[in-house]
Amino acid sequence: MPPIEKTRVLIVDDIQETRENIRRMLQFEASVEVVGNAKNGVEAIEKAQQLKPDVVIMDINMPDMDGILATELIRKKSPSSQIVILSIQSDPNYMRQAMLAGARDFLSKPPKIDELIAAVKRAGTMAQEERSKTSPSYPSLIGTPQSQGAKFIQQTGTIIVVYSPKGGVGCTTIATNLALAFESMNSRTLLVDGNLQFGDVCVMLNEQSKNNILDLTKRVDELDPEVVGEVVSKHSASNLHILACPPRPEMADSVTSEEFGKLLEYLCELYTFVVVDTASYLTEIVQSALECAHYIVLVTNQDIPSIKSCNLFLTLASASHIRERVLFVMNRFDKRLKITPEKVGENLHQNIIATIPIDEKVIPNSINRGVPFIMENKTYPISKSIIGLAEIISEQIQNRIQAEEKELVSKK
Known about the structure:
- It is a single chain.
- By secondary structure, the protein is of the alpha/beta class.
- The chain has helices at residues 16-27, 41-51, 67-77, 92-101, 113-132, 145-154, 171-184, 201-204, 214-217, 225-231, 257-270, 284-292, 304-319, 341-348, 362-369, 373-376, 381-411, and strands at residues 7-12, 32-38, 55-59, 82-87, 105-108, 158-163, 189-193, 233-234, 241-243, 273-277, 295-300, 326-333, 352-357.
- The strands form 2 sheets. It has an 8-stranded mixed beta sheet with strand order 8-9-7-10-6-11-12-13, with helices on both faces. A 5-stranded parallel beta sheet has the order 2-1-3-4-5, sandwiched between helices.
- The longest helix has 31 residues, at 381-411.
């Protein structure tokens, strides 16, 4: 019989004594081999790519990059590596964040030796099963900038993902009105509700769709314009096309990230603009949307939790090489507050390209009536700001295409 393959483990903790204690616990298990250690999240990502461990034992609270962000990146860059989170925090919210980031187990610190070994063995078995699969691995958060540049020229349309890591900042309102702004420029535009569990795009437009995204993802490898035309619905008050989310939250699990990514890329061949509204959590569906996006409209408010969450995302975006596609926008901008766009941009090292003013009368009325404010009155300050954002994106698209065309010509 061939020898049993050992489970290769990487230990990540900012305290050397803790790393050594975990190593000692694992050395008594013959089927486990500690292949390396790291003192922070950034080093953990590098070591994970170099050593390709089966299991990463990850602390949550570390300098430079915490364990949640590091887990997300490792799972995307080394999808077969399984993460076991260690934390002194027993808060269920930490557990939820860890699992959403891709962790496979969560243990309290300090772990008991039998619990630790059992968790490592379970994760190791899962890692080896992942490696043995012949199907493609989970998509990486983003491809290389070079490949994305070529893709940008070849495709006829542009995918714009509206995203915020903090819920309740107005992403759906922005996505809906931005899509209508593009449509008003006589551009063929599709609005995709990428919040597959709790999407509100149809509510914002006072529309009901008999079809939804499942009607396309289940046959994503055999799509044609006629099939898409039968599934998408047309906004009754404009030429905007809408692709609705599933009617029930549990149906969202029927859509895989691979199917969603393939669908967006195909839709990009049919529409000038594909605007995607997303959920706030970095689910695999959201990550697939970010992977496909030519531009990511990152939305913040002036409140500290929103800014903090965007800062964390920008750190992740830098590590994933997608930050150059981020267009930073401040929604519900109130001139009376001391937190200015300039200060936020300076502190986060990402300029805010547009502000959307607060309007405590127009927006609630717009949402409750299902009539986007940009359709009601284009002279509202808030409407002008959305139109301005659409023009900024259009200008960036043209500049990028021209620059890439010149680069292609110069290489000939």
